[in-house]
Amino acid sequence: MRIAGVDIGNSTTEVALAELSDGQGAPHFLASSRVPTTGIKGTLVNVPGIVRALTEATAEAGLELRDIDLVLLNEATPVIGDIAMETITETIITESSMIGHNPNSPGGMGIGVGTTVHVGELERSLPGEAVIAVVPRTHDFQRSADIIGRALARGVRVEGAIVQADDGVLIANRLPKPLPVVDEVRLIDHVPLGMLAAVEVADHGQAIQQLSNPYGVATLFQLTPEETALIIPIARALIGLRSAVVIRTPAGDVETRRIPAGSLKLIGEQRTVAIALDGGADSIMDALREATPLRDVEGEPGTNVGGMVERVRQAMSAMTRKPAAQIHIRDILAVDCLVPHRVSGGLAQEFSMENAIGLAAMVNTDRLLMEQLASALHDELGTRVELGGVEANMAILGTLTTPGIDVPLAILDLGAGSTDAAILERGQPVRSMHLAGAGDMVTLLIQRELDLPGAGDSEVAEQIKRYPMAKVESLFHIRHEDNTVRFFEEPLHPKLFGRVALITPDGLSPIPTHQTMERIRTVRREAKRRVFVRNALRALSAVAPGGNIRMLRFVAVVGGSGLDFEVARMLTDQLAPYGIVIGTANIRGRLGPVNAVATGLVLSHLQKRPQNRGEG
Amino acid sequence: MAAAPDLRERPAIHVASLGAGDAGLYRWIAIGAEEEGVPTALVPPEGARDAGEGDAVAAAYAAARSSRVGIGLAIAAGEVVLHEGHMPPRQPVLALAFGTDAATVCRRAGANAARLVARLPLKFGDEPDDGADADADDAPQRRAPAGAARNRGNQGNQARRGDGQDPPDPAAHPLRHPPGHPLSEHEVATIARVVAAIIRQRGITWR
Fold first, then answer.
1. What is the spatial distance between Cα B207 and Cα B196, in angstroms, rounded to a whole number?
2. Which of the four pLDDT bands, split at 50, 70 and 90, describes residue B1?
3. B115 to each of B35, B71, B72, B153, B187, how far by Cα in Å?
4. Distance CA B199, CA B179 (A)
5. A454 at the B interface (CB within 8 A)?
6. Is B145 at the interface with chain A, CB within 8 A?
7. Fewest Cβ atoms nearer than 10 Å: which of A198, A414, A475, B130?
């Protein structure tokens, strides 16, 4: 008889197809497949994905769908996860008063202070007057440089220029003396005229000194101590830039507004803990430890976190078709991050780094849904469909097919939506633990921290998570993350030149960002560390005997995120001190970390038959 | 930016001009490179018999080979060719048709030549600046290069001559238009196609 084990995960649906002989002996595995899950795991929309996965597997084995005698569905981990992120600070410029950005090529260098004057009006400025020329795109570099040059010759003290076009170097090169020129200021019309302004351009490879220092700004504008306190957010936003302008407007003001972040109420079986979000992710996770085991989580109404928790609940309620009041959040993972946020009121698309908190939440689903799914699948296929067994047990069974593994065995299932751990010890039932936050959370963190194209289209972030990078240094060579160089026979595409590119199976793919490779790498690794490593430790200590990770011997990583090129090594580094054998599972000796549950389903069916002893 | 007495003395991007009336365009190339901080020098065209298209590539290659920074440009009738000394002689880095605005194309070619020297990503003019200071309001625009970039990744090493003249990727087609210039028939057709696609995408119908 031919049976198919089907594992519906948050992001992929996997199938193991096997032939079972009627007599003794191990099952003969015919084929495996892995396709994206359609819809949310455990809902009826999964059926098309399952059918596709089964079709692929049967085609690989040279069979038809109707040749399958029995389909075994996993009793899916009764959890689904969702993620949300909110910034908890925001910088607002109430009146245009600063420009801080890194144009590719600002002109000249130094610092200048003067009154802003439109370049067309410069001829009317009086000798001795200190001015900053404001040059819109309508004045090309030659004309502007001529006008500024004539003004300088008349004795007008032109101290610097703010330019709309990418003409900074061209203008600076045509002036009789070096002046700082900030260019590529798109919203030049918004630069107030007749106001005191300071322009600073740093030398190549350096960052501005004066305008990023509150006392520097105070010196230039002769500010009182009270006024100096007000400009701290400006100075902070300008740190590390090569060029900047600060304009003093009468009511000009930049503030860092703290959005009421609110608090989370963690309702545990034994005790309830309320924790303010501004304390950061660590304090939330500490509070969670106190409240565990969790019954539900509530957010303070009318605050960001209240909205966040409500959104998760609504999304879950829509998915499971259960009233929102019956959706209980059983675990959360909070992660601190710094996200670039457009400064409202900025003149050149300035960004400031704002604090944010990412939250992954997990709710329990019920078995009823899986039964509905099984019957829908039966209607679709006409084949017998059974619920095969608890996912964690199946995963353990499947993992045991990895060569060199033995009990007591703990597995770490790094999926897309949740991180699960399970442990099998001799003579004891399998214990398992499901935690919120996994691959999808990592993708979200990467997307937000690098400010990549946003929600619903996080494919770039997903690829950054998945593939290593290289910098294209010439038309013929790239430099990998580990500094090794690789040469190509054929010239690379000019669009790749000078960019950071992902090394995908389809070739090099440029990342649409100006961030350096080092920065992208740091963000990527930090995201993985804060989600995978942290959750791995949480999950393992939850299932380990006596909560002591040292008591574990074999730990195997399974699940789609186990395919990740660096997570297994990060986990090894973290767990090595505990003296544990940890590695990526190799299901059936050749499939790597995927297909554990599907394989386990087939094996468990074998165990159920009285005349056979499974190989588990 | 006049040519030095001995061209071998000073590292510079070499520019060869084929035919008459291109001296004005050399100025735009020099300006493009100057903004990026790299010097240029005008050199006599070599390897070219007449102002034919193939000769522009040969002249650009010869200019690149004679340049100490290994980058050369050739201005020909209707196009500017950017070459790099290590590339196969017949395969320039970029060949850009002037279209309606030769000055802008030449300035960008000069900037790209300099960016090759400076090892910065090239500017293609057809894509929004997708960096940190990109226009975040244009979310759909910003997404475009990501998708297009993946397609390009698949092409991998097959850099092709004539990229600027006949872009294989419709997303890479220049839709930016300098104000004050009338649209060419081709550009109008492109815009009409894009608008029609958007309308179809949104499911808008009219009678």
1. 15
2. very low
3. 10, 10, 12, 21, 28
4. 25
5. yes
6. yes
7. A475
Rounded CA separation B73/B45 (Å):
10
A267 and B CB contact within 8 Å: no
CA distance B110 to chain A (A): 13
Residue type, A418: S
Residue that wins the pLDDT comparison between A263 and B133: A263
DSSP character at residue A136: -
DSSP 8-state secondary structure symbol assigned to residue A10: S
Please say whether the beta carbons of A571 and A532 come within 8 A: yes
Which amino acid, one-letter code, is at A450? L
Residue B134: its chain A contacts at CB < 8 A?
349
How far is it, in rounded angstroms, from Cα A235 to Cα A231? 6
List of long-range contacts for A58-61, beta carbons under 8 Å, 24+ apart: A58/A17, A58/A31, A60/A17, A60/A30, A60/A31, A60/A32, A60/A33, A61/A17, A61/A30, A61/A31
A476/B133 touch (CB, cutoff 8 Å), yes or no: no
Establish whether this prediction's ipTM goes over 0.85.
no
Which residue in this structure is represented by tokens 């972040």? A261
Neighbours of A47 (CB within 10 A): 18
Nearest to A463 by CA among A452, A479, A477: A452
Distance (Å, rounded) from C-alpha A162 to C-alpha A130? 14
Alpha helices (H) along A90-210: 141-153, 168-173
Cβ contact A123:A114 at 8 Å: no
Smallest CA–CA distance, residue A351 to chain B, in Å, is: 8
Report yes or no on whether pTM surpasses 0.80: no
- Dihedral sign, Cα of residue A22, residue A26, residue A27, residue A28: negative
Where b means 16+ CB within 10 Å and e means fewer, B13-28 reads bbbbbbeeebeebbbb
Q: What is the 3-state secondary structure (H, E, C) of A121-132?
A: HHHHCCCCCEEE
The C-alpha atoms of residue A5 and residue A600 are separated, in whole angstroms, by 8
Confidence of residue B132 (pLDDT cuts 50, 70, 90): very low
| pLDDT-derived band at A118, boundaries 50, 70, 90 | very high
Lowest mean pLDDT among A176-180, A290-294, A401-405, A593-597: A290-294
Q: Do A510 and B152 touch (CB under 8 A)?
A: yes
Is residue A582 within 8 A of residue A555, CB to CB? The reply is yes
HEC string of A296-352 equals: EEEECCCCHHHHHHHHHHHHHHHHHCCCHHHCCEEEEEEEEEEEEEECECCCCCCEE
Quick check: A349 and B115 CB within 8 A?
no
